[in-house]
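Late entry, magnesium ion complex.
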Amino acid sequence: MAIRIGNGYDIHQLVSGRPLILGGVAIPHTLGLLGHSDADVLTHAIMDALLGALSLGDIGHYFPPDDPQWAGADSTQLLAHVAGLIHSRGWQIGNLDTVVVAERPKLKPHIPAMQARLAEVLGLAPDQVGIKATTNEKLGPVGREEGIAAYAVALLERPAAP
Ligand code: MG
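Prediction complete; structure with ligand written out below:
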């Protein structure tokens, strides 16, 4: 069994007049994330972790922010595309572990739905998709609710050739 590991990070600005989408789930809030796509910061961090594990570059390479094709894109569709790149190279996802850093809203009640949605997109069991939420203790831009950040680690596995 060969294994590879990758990490990803992303941050998006919080603004009024946008939906808040995290892990493919719409979360009720007074603010949403600004971006060319749906600005799903958690899904973006996961994509970069998956790509990074195989040194395939980053999401900006596959989905350029200035490409009108991706305007308003559902990031879970982009994630499915990235998963296809991984699978086509003979790799499968062992597990993901992630952290979402947000001062508000409280994300804990939404974590099971986010795990279920991401697992569905990736063909995984929900317990292969770790999601943790923390605040930034009111420190820095995330603490001032100017944005939400996410970190992700992905473990990939490839069975040994028979
Ligand atoms: Mg992003």
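The pocket of magnesium ion is lined by residues 10, 12, 35, 41, 44 (CB under 6 Å). Will revisit in the morning.
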